[in-house]
Amino acid sequence: MIELKDINKTYNNGQPLHVLKGIDLNIEQGEFVSIMGASGSGKSTLLNILGILDNYDSGTYHLNGTLIKNLTEKQAASYRNRMIGFIFQSFNLISFKTAVENVELPLFYQGVPRRKRHELAMQYLEKLGLRDWAQHYPNEMSGGQKQRVAIARALITHPQIILADEPTGALDSKTSKEVMALLKELNRTEKITMVIVTHDSGVAAQTDRRIHISDGLIVND
Amino acid sequence: MRLDIDTYREIADSLVRNRSRSLLTGFGIFWGLFMLLALIGGGQGLKSMLLKNFEGFATNTAIVWESATTKPCKGFKEGRRWHMSYKDVERLRKMVPELETVTPVLSEWGITAEYGTSTASCSLKGVYADYANIESPKLKYGRYINSTDVLLERKVCVIGKRIYTSLFPEGGDPCGSFIKLGTAYYQVIGVDFNSGNISINGNADQAATVPLPVIRKIYNRGSYIDIICLTGKKGIRMSSLEERIRQILAREHYFDPTDKQALFYLNTEQVFSIMDNLFKGVNFLIWLVGLGTILAGAIGVSNIMMVTVKERTTEIGIRRAIGATPKDILSQIIMESISLTLMAGSAGIVFSVLVLQTVEKITKQSTFQINFWTAIAAAALLALLGVVAGLAPAVRAMQIKPVDAMRDE
Questions:
Q1: What is the CB neighbour count within 10 angstroms for residue B387?
Q2: A77/B4 touch (CB, cutoff 8 Å), yes or no
């Protein structure tokens, strides 16, 4: 599913910063993986590369058999749209759109007709127990609800992978557990590959496989 | 680009979200377009109002009249009076073949016209039949002075509009009636409704035109004439004849041909070209001011869109992360910019049309309104401005990377 071979990444902001120093990683279809590491260890950079949000300097990255390298912006956008769902720490919902409009958005960029995408978005919100909140704006919802909207938005394109960056970072412990349970359930029932970046060992403990990254290298798998 | 109701809703949403900002920015465009169109309409209205003054007046005309000399010549002191005579008319006819018409005019001022109990003050103008080439009459009733009238020295007159309305307040065809002009009675043969304000010895609407020999006899005018009116043949510029005409008259009357005061040579071509230059200048200013204002408005839009893009970095980053291509973002920003300029600009077009319509109502002139194609051109200009104004901010937005969405947190 995900095949990383000797991925290197250097940031050149003034002083060159070698962030990833040769990452080799294989993640199979349907795995439930967490990536752990201290801040500055390179875990967010790794996630950005996995999510085709950022380029890498050398090595190869195959996603579902496709080599992800030197893509045009348009190709990258299309892969992100169809293959990857994102869940962010700060939810990253668009504040002036209602829950259902937020969920619809990826389908809008796929060119799905209006009526169809609205229907689908409502289905997913219902699945996540947010049917009554469909017409509410993000600032009217609790953190847990917002994250569930974000999850619905990630799921709506039927991605093969969901990449979550500290999905529970902004939530209290009770809702954290709920969200993790939800992700786990999605992994079990829908067979979606989940990659969760976190520094919370409690969160990592709920995953099937824990990858520790330190100073740009995988130290423990 | 995806054409979808949501695309439009999104544009409307983002414009409405910052309502006062959109309004203020739009006002720049609105005012720019209003200014441009109102000025264009006002300019063309004023121009045609001014040109109306020249109505019925041949554009290829010159008028000469004499005055006291200001330069000594051939032993004569300066300040000498001299007079043009009928011989000069013949001379000009013979010696300047480029002239189409050479016709003298005699005038009498402060004449009272009477008919029944009505009176009106007027001027008398004695002309030959070919005077119609100089000031073409707009005859409401009857006919103009013809050569038989002149030959037989008939006491007939063509009266101007104001004399007609004063003497015949009940209207109707006055031809055949006899009116008293000064000391003698004349039969009315025509009514001239020419309302141009160019006046050759008296306003056309206050003048009674009669055959020249009649005036010459009744007022004992001898062989002197007041003015000579000239028109050139087709394609002849009257200004090119001035020198020769001066030479001919100067030789005969012993004044210095360079003495511009001794002989006035009024060339309508000059007057028209002065008008023309004036309006060219006015037009240039109109476009300068109008386009400048619109441009300032467009720069305002561009600036505000820049700010908007900066504010929406996170939002745009999110959109990019979930699959928007750079082109999607580009078209979104440009569409917003076009919508803003088009809406504000259309309001400007509508408002200027309203204002010009009101001006037309008030002035009772129908020459102020901009025409349909000007409005269409203005709308096209707007769309173009929208694109141009949106371009820089859109490129900026396009450069936002999806990771920026997360970095901003």
A1: 15
A2: no
